[in-house]
Prior knowledge:
8-stranded parallel β-barrel; alpha/beta
Amino acid sequence: MKFVVGNWKMNGSREILREMIRQIDGLRPENRVVLCVPFTLLGEKSTNIAFGAQDVSSHERGAYTGEVSATMLSEAGAKYVIVGHSERRMYHDETNDIVREKAMRALESGITPIICVGETMDEKRAGKTIDVITSMVRESLPTNVRDDIIIAYEPRWAIGAGITPTADEIAGAHRVIADTLSYMGLDGTPILYGASVNAANVGDIVAIRNVDGVLVGGASLKPEEFIPIIQSVK
Length: 234
Ligand code: PGA
């Protein structure tokens, strides 16, 4: 079983979500379909979709105006949460330490964190891809975890850009992540690929070794684009 995870970012509405659920609930997906929606859209029911959020507070509770805790997400029906997405790292200065704290809060509430790692274009050009993703994996993961985490490799330079890395680049990055996880005693942790995934390229991407599914941004917003992706992942 592979994962097809949609990340709606700050898009969508309840009406659009209900239509997406109606159409996906009419399918028989062979894979785990997850939709990470804005906080306000959590709470819908679906037979075929598990829901997730896109961020969680690193604190358990208290005077943190505007933040949403992992227990609140759980109560709202979230089973997954994306943490450390490059847009959070970039626009909200999230460090590996913060990402790790957030992932810990998620696990404490029975929510599976989808921890994002990936290099920038400058890091790639400087030949630092392997070093960057290795240290991101090592530093962003909670200690003492045994299971129930997911890693998403998202090369930052390819997100929303309509360009995808070559199959060799994806295979290389996923192998480094798999080796790092193995070194940490976390063999078998799913590793998703994300950045400019669409119905035309998803089949080739999930055929790459160590790719256990995809994290889809823009192409997850409309049923006519997302459903062919779900159906192409074998
Ligand atoms: P994209 O976004 O599919 O639009 O490139 C992926 C992501 O940011 O998770």
